[in-house]
Amino acid sequence: MQIEIADDTFRRVLAVKPLIAAVLEEDYDDQMCVDVLFQLSLKGILTDLMGGDDPAVLLQSFYQLAERHPRTSTRLSSTG
Fold first, then answer.
1. What distance in Å separates the CA atoms of residue 50 and residue 58, rounded to the nearest whole number?
2. What is the pLDDT of residue 75?
């Protein structure tokens, strides 16, 4: 699968590529850098949405997720 990104976004990926290599102590190709940035962004968004460290907010978020996507409960129970 191939996804196109804007030229400016790609330049930004290339600009942070040395930082990614330094932090992760490994050189990555352009595609892997995009993947790393996406995963970190997704993790940040989910952390913001889930309420950080507040267990009540986290629990409520799981309830809402399970209501919309019933397979969530099955997945969560199989990760323990």
1. 5
2. 63
**Which pTM was predicted?**
0.60
- Nearest by Cα to 20 from 7, 10, 30, 9: 30
- Stretch (H or E) spanning 35: helix 30-50
| Residue whose entry in the numeric block shows the structure tokens 């850098």 | 33
Q: What is the 3-state secondary structure (H, E, C) of 1-22?
A: CCCCCCHHHHHHHHHHHHHHHH
What is the number of domains present in the chain? 1
Asked if residue 22 belongs to a domain, the reply is yes
Contact predicate 61/49, CB 8 Å: yes
Rounded-to-integer distance, Cα 68 and Cα 3, Å: 28
Q: Residues 28-75: pLDDT tens digits?
A: 899 999 999 999 888 887 777 766 667 777 778 778 888 888 777 666
